[in-house]
Amino acid sequence: MSAHGKPVVMEAQKSVGLSGEANVPGDKSISHRSLIFGAMAIGQTRIKGLLEGQDVLDTAKAMASFGARVERLGAGEWTVDGVGVGGFAEPDHVIDCGNSGTGVRLIMGAMATTPITATFTGDASLNKRPMARVTEPLALFGAQAFGRSGGRLPMTIIGAQTPVPVRYTLPVPSAQVKSAVLLAGLNVRGETVVIEDEATRDHTERMLAGFGADIRTEETDEGRVITLQGQPDLRPQDITVPRDPSSAAFPICAALITEGSDVLVPNIGLNPTRAGLFETLIEMGADLTYENIRDEGGEPMADIRARFSPDLKGIEVPPARRKMIDEYPTHGCGRQCHGRDRDAGSRSCA
Predict the structure, then answer these.
(1) Residue 326 a catalytic site member
(2) CATH for 28-239?
(3) CATH of domain 242-349
(4) 202, 326, 341, 343: which one is catalytic?
(5) pLDDT tens sequence across 218-272
(6) For the chain, what are the domain ranges?
(7) Computed from CA positions of residues 316, 197, 204, 30, in that sequence, does the dihedral angle turn out positive or negative?
């Protein structure tokens, strides 16, 4: 209830079943990367389904500040005329990334091996967050960072004049840091290597391959080793941004527990690092099917149909799926969830 308005009486009624299509927003992680990779390609990238939240809009403005031509054609439809790898121009004003930690860290990586200088800031919340976990590996390429105490924004990055390739082992799992290092490696002659003990979201690797980069991944005794050949000519793409699996979780789970329901949620991303909830629901006995399975820009996606499932059963969720953090509010499908906290490993749904 608002503190400034009169209370409104609301009446709950039993549902007679959910049906039809549930359209959820585009994936934010892929929206950021679509704009950045489009700006680093040569030619025009066309994007459909871009999430037009403020975080992504700030990244679009940033790419324009670095010299790309970024244009909105309509709801969720954008074009990016890129400047090529190493083609970023020096911006003439401070880059404001608002509240987006993903945006600022990826953009820092993208410009760190170009001989230009850029200053980054954000809102009060972002300016409290440390950036050292990104600026430290970027320094290995030859970039310099000058910020407030504790490695906080506002921060100026001076791009490397003569960048050198890097072999970097992530001290803690982080898709943002991994992506920043790979983006920096694009403008370096030779191979940039990132090693992670635990696999993180791989949107960057998939999209780099989709844009034509020479990138490969191997499972070794060291861990997951990602090798990127520098200075590629990235090819522009037509991208349909998959819709966010975390947002899809709510209408899907509502359909599964509501008698008489049959709901289609179209264009949902099925990246293996993001689809843990759907795998878990199927194991619980959910009537969940994938339709129109396809690949967009290296990302798997499908339309997901969810029907009322009266015989859901409790299961033990394996530790490998502990990354489905955003889906925990729904992963029990309306049932009680018992188990350890999200960082500890397995949980049980009952």
Answers:
(1) yes
(2) 3.65.10.10
(3) 3.65.10.10
(4) 326
(5) 999 999 999 999 999 999 999 999 999 999 999 999 999 999 999 999 999 999 9
(6) 28-239, 242-349
(7) positive
